[in-house]
Every structure is written in structure tokens, then in C-alpha cells.
Amino acid sequence: MSTCSNCGGRGRVSRDCPNCNGQGRVPDYNNWDGSNLNYNSCSSCGGSGYKEESCSRCGGSGQIDDGSSSSGGSSSSYTPSSSGGSSSRSGGGGRNRTDQQMEADYNSIKDCYNKCDWQGLLDAYQTATQRDYYKYFQKLESRVENVWYMVETARAKTDPDYDYVRAFYYSDWGEHKNAQSSDSDRKIIKKGLYNIAKNLFQRKHGREITDSELTQLHLNYLEQGMSENINKKYIGSAWSKRDEWEQITGREMTKEEQIRIIGKHFPKRPKEESSSSSSSYSGGNDVVPRGKFLSIVLGLVCGLGATLAVGWVIVNMTGMAKLPTIPALIMIVVGFIATFDSWRWKKNVLFLVMLALTIPGWLIMFRIIPEHVNLRHSIKSATTQTTQSANTNPSAEIIKNVNFRKGPSTNDEVIRQLKQGDIVILTGEVSGGWTQVTRDGEKGWVSNEYLKVWEK
Fold first, then answer.
1. Number of other CB atoms surrounding residue 40 within 10 Å
2. What is the DSSP string of 71-134?
3. Domain definitions of the chain by residue range
4. pTM assigned to the model
5. Cβ of 147: how many Cβ atoms within 10 Å?
6. Residue 258, number of CB atoms within 10 A of its CB
7. Exposed / middle / buried, residue 191 (Cβ in 10 Å: 0-12, 13-18, 19+)
8. Is 2.30.30.40 the CATH number for 387-453?
9. How far apart are CA 36 and CA 208, in angstroms?
10. Per residue in 117-148, pLDDT tens?
């Protein structure tokens, strides 16, 4: 047996007090007005700044077995964390190097916060986030969530242009303004940030903020957030803010207020997702956009295909040789935008409509569907056949533009001109090379050369 070198044979070692970080005093947040911070003696260490605890190497006996320090020693040997930092375990803590460094950085930031050393706090935070670790700052803030609120406090105290609305937001709009020393660190920090926000408001306006003004600031902030969320298609986040808005006002948002805030009626509330996939910020309701590249490709394909389909119908209905260039380009652009937006933001109904227009368009492109079909004639034929089923008189088609006259000669007065493809009803009267027909309820004569009689 030999004397333990870690504790000098006393069986106990001194460590910095975790409550005051070795300072011997703790800040009095209960009476903090956001500017001057008073301190009280640390009740945990009695103001000494350190605490004694049993030596983990010798177990408090002050003596160790000589064999425990040999190269083949037992697995219960103690390796101080300061002996090189390469061991994956330190005093049984099981923390890796990154975790140890994060804890050291956090203690440094918290120490600056307790001392109201705001610039030192920002410097410590910047140093911590620049360390060569993968996404170090994210790990630091997710592991110790109080870091962000301490950093915001420091920014509010050092930036002369810091917005008091931002400070009110991070303080949860005064929700923790009555926090006590026995409450969690976060509530206490937010209480301090709330007091800072009030001081910033008073400095700018020369008076204290009223409860009604604070409520209105909160509502304005939510309304601005709703507008931004809707513009970015974050529907779930917008609904979360609307729920908070309605909770504050104690009533449902009217349609007029919806239009004032977001410029239109609120979209339908998204379906709730499982809690495992939900985001604490968005409530799991935000639409995750599909890939931009595929959205562009589909937009081009469907925009052109839909234009071909619509143009085919217009050309064959009107008898035009082709669709004019400018209307065709406009249709392509509109089709591209509709397809891009519907696919990227999962508007499935609109996308299916565009797809239904696209398929026949590309069939026309590859001549699977004939390019020219007399749709006008087909529709008129179907209409005439329906009329003939209730009419005993036969019908005929005008095969070329011809004059519709009051009598059976070229000397008779012209009523009007009949167009190629017009359908007429035969009355049964003929005279020489002329036939009497009825068109739109009006009787007249047409030369037989321009008639194609349909056999019943």
C-alpha cells in the first residue's frame, strides 16, 4: 500500500463548486432589473468557491495498492482527465473529447454570463463555435439549450441597435417575468431578457411599456410570421401562429383579418403527422418541397404537352392552320408554372389535371393521334343526326361557300351566304338545278352543285 498521489493521502480532493463555478457567489436574478446585477454568497460552498469530495482514485481511503499503477493493473484504475485527454473515459464519466470540450465551453459562457461580462460571453461563444468539430455549435446549443438565450442577452446588452421586439420574443413575451431563484436556469435567463426588453423600450419611447402594448407587439409579431410562413408554403407553422393568435385574442380569426394579414383566406389546415416525425417548430404540418430539378423537367414536359393538346382542339375547332406563336408561348409558360408548383408543393389534384392534358398532347406530337381532325364537322354531324331522328326530312351538307337565295335562280335576291360545312334541311321541293332548303328556320334555294345529300 502507498499514499494516494491524487489526494495526498487525505482521501478527499477539492473541486470547483458546480453551483457558482468556483466564484463563491451567485447572481441574484430575483431582483435584477436588466442592468445592475447583485450577487449573493453561494449557499452550496459557503462562499469558498470549492467543495471537497471523496477521492475517486483511492475511494476515500488515502491509500492505494502498489499494483494498481502497473502496466497490467486492474480495470478499476483511475485516469485523470487532465493526463492527456486521449482516453475515452474519464473518472467513469464515459464522455468523449467533444463532450468534455463542450462542457468547458458552456462553463466559460455561463461564467461570463454570471459576471455580466457580455463581450467576453460573445467572444467565448464565437471561440466555441469555431472549433474544428462537425456542426459543433449545433451540438453545443442542442445539448445545453440555455446557451442561445445567454447569447441573446449579451447581444441585447452590447448592440445599440438591438430591437426590443426581438428581446420580448426570446423572453416568451414576459411569460417568466415572475421566475424565482428556485426555477430552472432558462426561466431565470428569460426573465432577465424580459427586463432588458422593457429597458430598451423605455429608452426608446421614454416610458414603460403597458400590458396592452406588449400584447399588441406579440400579435403583430405573429401576424408578420404568418405572412412569411404562407409565402414560403410553411402552412403548418402559419397555423401554429394563428392558433396562438386566437388564444391571445380569445376569438376566432375572421375572414377579413385573414385577408389583411396574409392577403387571402387561410389555406386548409394540414393533417397532423405522427409525433416521431413532427418538428417542434412547424408542428410537423409544413409541406416538404420535392426536388427542384425534377420539378423543372416535369414543368417543361407538361407545359409543352398541355399546350399541344389545347392547341390541337382550338385549331381543329376553328379551322386555323396553326396556333399563333404568342398565345402558344403564353400557354407553355402557364403550363410550366402550374406543373412546377403543383409537383414541387404536392398539389396532387392540379398536377393530375396537367398530366391528363399532357398525355394526349405528346400522342399528337408523335402522330399517334392525327394532327388534323374536322371536329366542327363531327360535332355538327352528331347534332344533325340527333335532329334527323325526330325529323322526316333529309339533310344535306354545304360542300363549298354558296349564296342562299329567295328563289331558284341567280337573279333572285341573296338572303345570305352559307359556309362550307353548314348543315341544311331539305324541304323536298326542287326546280331545275336548284333545291329548296331550310337553315335556322329560314327557307331558301341553293344550287344542287353545292349540296351533298345524306342518305337516310
1. 14
2. TT--TT----GGG-S-SS-STT----HHHHHHHHHHHHHHHHHHTT-HHHHHHHHHHHHTSSST
3. 2-70+91-157+179-201, 212-262, 292-365, 387-453
4. 0.44
5. 24
6. 17
7. buried
8. yes
9. 18
10. 899 988 988 887 775 554 555 556 555 667 87
